[in-house]
Design brief:
- This protein has eight helices and seven strands.
- It has 257 residues and is α/β, with parallel strands linked by helices.
- It has one domain: Rossmann fold (3-Layer(aba) Sandwich), CATH 3.40.50.720.
- The protein has a seven-stranded parallel sheet with strand order 3-2-1-4-5-6-7, sandwiched between helices.
- Helix 3 packs parallel to helix 4 and helix 4 runs parallel beside helix 6.
- It is globular.
């Protein structure tokens, strides 16, 4: 994939970008030249911290924080309106917001099931629907839905999360058909659990235990930077003919088809 395409002048929304993978994706998009709206449901301090990081690194006016519950239509509409008011356009939507609550299927709370599906699946539907007319304006719009390898392999104690992420695959393919004529590409990036460059030792040990060297053909854990580079590449001009696809980034744990 093309590394760090020139996204100067483009505007992106990254949902759930106050921490971890979303934060890293926001950094990569800004580094490629895009202006980025940082979204969180309630973590305003963390979202503002990411904005400060981006503006320090890439210049004032390049980032903005917005608290919005992506499962609420009014909140989504307000987030889109704020983006357009600030930068006058929208080119990229990264649907990254999700909720992860593990638990045994037999005793899993229905309220948690609903919260996970509302945030991950309903949120992607609502954000994509609200963004689509604006992504179509310049005929170079891009939607990236953040899935996960477990949606394809299964896993214990994660029925709600896996159901939501698997649903994103179907939604990606449906939207690729509907939005393609509008000049909008829609793809899904499905990573394994990734570590950040500054991950604490306990977290790295946990990941190594889950995806040990004996299970990963490449023999190492992946990084959020590697996932983010793939997301940014899909937003660039070299990949305008790719749509409706699931891009697997997992070191060989799962070979997608």
């Amino acid at each position: 994939m093309e590394a760090s395409p020139n996204l100067s002048g483009r505007v992106a929304i990254v949902t759930g970008s106050a921490r971890r993978t979303g934060r890293t994706i926001a950094h990569k998009l800004a580094g490629a030249g895009a202006s980025v709206l940082i979204n969180a449901r309630s973590a305003l301090v963390e979202a503002n911290a990411v904005v400060e990081e981006l503006e320090t690194a890439y210049g004032k006016g390049r980032a903005l924080a917005c608290l919005a519950d992506v499962s609420d239509p009014a909140s989504v509409d307000a987030m889109i309106a704020l983006t357009l008011k600030t930068w006058g356009r929208l080119d990229i939507l990264v649907n990254n917001a999700s909720v992860r609550r593990h638990g045994e299927f037999a005793t899993y709370p229905l309220s948690d099931w609903h919260d996970i599906l509302h945030t991950t699946l309903d949120g992607t539907f609502l954000c994509s629907r609200a963004a689509a007319p604006h992504l179509a304006v310049n005929k170079q719009g891009c939607i990236i839905n953040m899935g996960g390898v477990a949606a394809h392999t299964g896993a214990k104690n994660a029925a709600a999360m896996i159901t939501a992420k698997a649903g994103l695959v179907g939604l990606t393919r449906a939207l690729a058909h509907e939005l393609g004529p509008m000049g909008i590409t829609v793809n899904c990036v499905a990573p394994a659990s990734m570590r950040s460059a500054d991950e604490d030792p306990a977290r790295i040990a946990q990941l190594n235990s889950l995806y040990g060297h004996d299970k990963v053909p490449l023999g190492r854990s992946g990084t959020m930077d590697e996932v983010s580079e793939a997301v940014v590449a899909l937003c660039g001009p070299a990949w305008r003919y790719m749509t409706g696809q699931v891009v697997h980034i997992n070191g060989g744990i799962f070979f997608g088809s």
